[in-house]
C-alpha cells in the first residue's frame, strides 16, 4: 500500500477492490452533502491526505467538477456521470476479453513456454507466407468446391502476382464448383484482371463486389481459411478451420457475398462466342463498359485502359447515350440485357 505522511497520522492508500469501495463511500457522502467542501469532508472523518487523493480520483472519473475555490467541489449530475463510467467499464471489459488470447501468447513467449493455444481442428496461421502456402494447398486438393472471396490483403496480392507469373499455380481440377469473388479495390491490380479473365475463359464464374470485409476460402467440406492480412500485414490472427460449425458458417457467408456481387465477364470473348449479339463497340469501349458494370470509378478505368480520365468520361457518356441510360447503373443493366457483358 502507498503511504502518505504529514502533520497528521499516515494515510495508507488501499488498492484493488478496497480502494474502489473507499471511492464509492466518499462519492455517496459527497452526493449526500450536495456541495462538498474540505471542512465538510473532514467532519465526515476524512483526513486531508485522504481528501486530496480521493477528490483527485473523483475529478479524474468526472464525478466531481471544480468548485469556486480549491477546497470545494461540485458533484456532476449522477445519472450522466455514472452512465459514462458504466460505458467506459463495458468498453474495457470487451477489450480485455478480445485481447486475452493475444496477451496470453505474449506471456507464454516471455516466460519461454512455447505452447500455442489451439482448439482441435483450428490452426492459427503464422504470417503471410503461411496463408499463401495454405491457399495454394487447398487449390490443389479441392475436388468438389472451391469458393474464394478476396479483399486487397497482403496474401491475396502476393498470390495474384504469383499466378500472373505461373497461370497454373491456382488451377483447380475439372468438375469442381469454382466461384471467385474479388473486391473492387483489386481492380487496380493488373494481375487481378488477368486472373479474372483466365477464370472466365476456363468457365469459372467471377464476380466483383465493393467492401468484401476480409478474404475467405472454402475447400469442399474439409477446410476453410480466413485471411486477415489486410487488417494486420503480418497475417496474425488468420486461421484455417476444419470443424463442421465454422465450415457451414463460412459457406453461408460466402454464398451471401456471391449474391451481393456483380458478375464480371470478359466482354470481348463473350461477344466473339456469340456473333449474333456482338456489341457494336471497339475493344477499348468494351473494356470500359466491362469495368463500368463492376462499379469502377472513372479514375480506376482510366488507369486500367491507359487513357485520360477526360477520355473515360466522354466514352462513358457515349455508352450511356448509346444504351439510352440515364445513369451508369442503368447503362450496366442495359449492357447485360443486350448480352454485351
From TrEMBL:
SUPFAM superfamilies: C-terminal effector domain of the bipartite response regulators (SSF46894). GO terms for molecular function: DNA binding. InterPro entries: Sig_transdc_resp-reg_C-effctor, TrmB-like, Tscrpt_reg_LuxR_C, WH-like_DNA-bd_sf. Residues 274-339 form the HTH luxR-type domain. It comes from the Bacteria. One of its GO terms (biological process) is regulation of DNA-templated transcription. This is Regulatory protein, luxR family. It comes from Ornithinimicrobium cerasi.
Amino acid at each position: 500500500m502507498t503511504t502518505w505522511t504529514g502533520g497528521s497520522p499516515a494515510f495508507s492508500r488501499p488498492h484493488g477492490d478496497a480502494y474502489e469501495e473507499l471511492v464509492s463511500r466518499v462519492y455517496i457522502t459527497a452526493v449526500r452533502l450536495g456541495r462538498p467542501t474540505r471542512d465538510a469532508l473532514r467532519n465526515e472523518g476524512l483526513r486531508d491526505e485522504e481528501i486530496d487523493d480521493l477528490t483527485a480520483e473523483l475529478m479524474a472519473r468526472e464525478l466531481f467538477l471544480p468548485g469556486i475555490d480549491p477546497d470545494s467541489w461540485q458533484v456532476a449530475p449522477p445519472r450522466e456521470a455514472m452512465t459514462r463510467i458504466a460505458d467506459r467499464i463495458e468498453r474495457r471489459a470487451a477489450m480485455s476479453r478480445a485481447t486475452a488470447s493475444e496477451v496470453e501468447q505474449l506471456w507464454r513467449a516471455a516466460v519461454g513456454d512455447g505452447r500455442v493455444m489451439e482448439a482441435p481442428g483450428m490452426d492459427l496461421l503464422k504470417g503471410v507466407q503461411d496463408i499463401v502456402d495454405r491457399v495454394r494447398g487447398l487449390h490443389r486438393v479441392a475436388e468438389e468446391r472451391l469458393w474464394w472471396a478476396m479483399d486487397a490483403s497482403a496474401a491475396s496480392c502476393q498470390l495474384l502476382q504469383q499466378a500472373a507469373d505461373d497461370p497454373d499455380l491456382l488451377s483447380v481440377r475439372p468438375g469442381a464448383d469454382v466461384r471467385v469473388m474479388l473486391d473492387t479495390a483489386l481492380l487496380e491490380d493488373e494481375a487481378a484482371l488477368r486472373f479474372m479473365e483466365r477464370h472466365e475463359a476456363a468457365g469459372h464464374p467471377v464476380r466483383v463486389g465493393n467492401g468484401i470485409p476480409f478474404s475467405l476460402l472454402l475447400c469442399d467440406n474439409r477446410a476453410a481459411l480466413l485471411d486477415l492480412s489486410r487488417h494486420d500485414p503480418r497475417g496474425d490472427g488468420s486461421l484455417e478451420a476444419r470443424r463442421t460449425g465454422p465450415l457451414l458458417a463460412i459457406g453461408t457467408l460466402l454464398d451471401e457475398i456471391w449474391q451481393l456481387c456483380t458478375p464480371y465477364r470478359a466482354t470481348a470473348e463473350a461477344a466473339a462466342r456469340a456473333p449474333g449479339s456482338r456489341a457494336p463497340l471497339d475493344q477499348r469501349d468494351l473494356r470500359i463498359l466491362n469495368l463500368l458494370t463492376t462499379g469502377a470509378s472513372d479514375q480506376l478505368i482510366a488507369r486500367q485502359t491507359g487513357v485520360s480520365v477526360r477520355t473515360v468520361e466522354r466514352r462513358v457518356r457515349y455508352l450511356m447515350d448509346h444504351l439510352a441510360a440515364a445513369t451508369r447503373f442503368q447503362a450496366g443493366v442495359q449492357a447485360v440485357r443486350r448480352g454485351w457483358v
